[in-house]
């Protein structure tokens, strides 16, 4: 299918929400979307879908969106791919956005796949960098060949250009002190009815899902743990943080893959990142380099991680961490 790409304008960000609470990646995409929209000199629109979600449209405007489109109906709560997809298809057909950004979450990945096909759009998944060229072409970059190379993907002949983006790779936009302009929010016609949907949610069970990307404190262990993650877990608990790991530790099976930090794992940017028994390979650094403070504990004073740490302790993690934990618990 060929489209007249000149008809497509603007950047849309899909504001993913669950029971009225926005997924943090939505605000990260809004800040990146703002940059792209400014470079293109085109508007930034927040797309809010759900039930009783008007407050998220307000918030999107205070976080930098020019407009918000709101599709508010019971049919959109909880998330299901078919009503969301049908509504999105209708909106894209009518409004013709040039770029659509979606969080690379479980929901975002499901949604993006579902909507890209009927929209005949190009979709680049799991992006870690975004840019636009002079002609408004989205340059969507993502690791490829198991992380050995970065691929930059363009979709020159289709619109919209769509991308799912990894959580944690961009700074979230902050809500500003701006007055919300009611004219900038548009409640759109809901084109989906419950009777037309194919799926029904019988029960929603929220499992014990690990999400280290949201944590303020991350305590990560590496090969130096030698199979014993107890000191890592204890310190993480004392600090109210999450346990994470290098790929070496994950490959050994000491920690589940959802906790891997790095190029082929998660990107975290906590206030405090403690790296114990981790050498500081570039692929690991890529996932934690934007942390506010990094503390490294390593027996090797020449370990590369010390070059990226604010504070370093040369020592055996099995001795150092329990002492740190005890000190913190005493406080
Ligand atoms: P090592 O490099 O073996 O370092 C262990 C460190 O522990 C050493 O510095 C040692 O001095 C120290 N140590 C040993 N004993 C103690 C002790 N008792 N107390 C304190 N310190 C001690 N890696 C990732 O982490 N994340 C990724 O996403 C990732 N993706 C990759 C993608 C590709 C394509 C490739 C090729 C590699 C990737 N890697 C990734 C692997 C990466 O290159 C490193 O091999 C890995 O990060 C090393 O993990 P480590 O630091 O735990 O282990």
TrEMBL record:
Domain of life: Archaea
Keywords: Electron transport, FAD, Flavoprotein, Transport
Annotated signal peptide: none
Every Electron transfer flavoprotein alpha/beta-subunit N-terminal domain range: 11-200
MF term (GO), any: flavin adenine dinucleotide binding
Pfam families: ETF, ETF_alpha
Single GO BP term: fatty acid beta-oxidation using acyl-CoA dehydrogenase
Cited InterPro entries: DHS-like_NAD/FAD-binding_dom, ETF_a/b_N, ETF_a/FixB, ETF_alpha_N, ETF_asu_C, ETF_asu_C_CS, Rossmann-like_a/b/a_fold
SMART domains: ETF
PANTHER family, sorted: ELECTRON TRANSFER FLAVOPROTEIN ALPHA, ELECTRON TRANSFER FLAVOPROTEIN SUBUNIT ALPHA, MITOCHONDRIAL
Similarity field: Belongs to the ETF alpha-subunit/FixB family.
Name listed for the protein in its UniProt record: Electron transfer flavoprotein subunit alpha
Species assigned in the record: Haloferax marinum
Taxon lineage: Archaea, Methanobacteriati, Methanobacteriota, Stenosarchaea group, Halobacteria
